[in-house]
Amino acid sequence: MKRIVETVFVVIGLLIYGITTALSFVFLNIQDNEGWRAEMQSMLDSDPNLEQAQLSVDQIMEGVASVTWLIIISALVAIILGILAIVFLKGNKKPKPAGIILIITAVVTTVGTIGFGLFGGLAFLIAGIVALARKEKKPLEEESSSVNY
Fold first, then answer.
1. Which is nearest to 82 in space by CA: 108, 102, 109, 96?
2. Mean pLDDT per 10-residue segment, the chain (149 residues)
3. Whole-number pLDDT of residue 149
4. Rounded Cα distance, 101 and 108, in Å
5. What does each C-alpha distance from 94 to 53, 91, 100, 129 come to in angstroms?
6. What is the pLDDT of residues 86-110, one digit of tens each?
7. Within 13 Å, how many C-alpha atoms sit on residue 23's CB side?
8. What is the pTM of this model?
9. 3-class secondary-structure state, position 113
10. N or C: which end of the chain has fewer CB within 10 A?
């Protein structure tokens, strides 16, 4: 049995997680931009509810960098497990383990990417459910000797 539907959904998920990873790396590199830092500082200075001692630009940048690395690592794990699932689905070798991997990966990485991997997670979830629910067609055996009416 060909597993084209599952493979297509996994590839869509891989592309979405790849885009998430690339955008996260871009965002990580923007943090070193002095113009962006100056804009963040002006936003902090203009907020009357924040005192200067409460929050600094460096603290915000460290927090954003930590969250960005979490998103990158989660998306890379999803990409690796998605490729593994495609290998399992190829040739209908192990569709059940592939489905389980896809469903678990969808849930964990959607949470791990703090929602940025939601659409990739949905693609993985659909592929995992289809991989588990699809039954293999059994060949019909011809009964030439006895016919039941």
1. 102
2. 86 95 91 82 75 71 90 95 92 88 94 89 94 76 58
3. 62
4. 10
5. 57, 9, 10, 14
6. 999 888 788 899 999 999 999 999 9
7. 11
8. 0.80
9. coil
10. C
Q: Is 48 exposed, middle or buried (0-12, 13-18, 19+ CB in 10 A)?
A: exposed
Amino acid at 11: V
| pLDDT at res. 50 | 65
Which one, of 80, 85, 81, lies nearest residue 98 by Cα? 85
Indicate the helix (H) or strand (E) that contains 114. Answer: none
Contact (CB, 8 A) for 13 and 120: yes
Quote the Cα angle for 62-106-99, to 5°: 150
Burial bucket for residue 63 (CB in 10 Å: 0-12, 13-18, 19+):
exposed
The DSSP code sequence of 33-91 is -HHHHHHHHHHHHH-TTS-TTT--HHHHHHHHHHHHHHHHHHHHHHHHHHHHHHHHHGG
State the Cα torsion 37-43-47-53 to the nearest 10°.
0
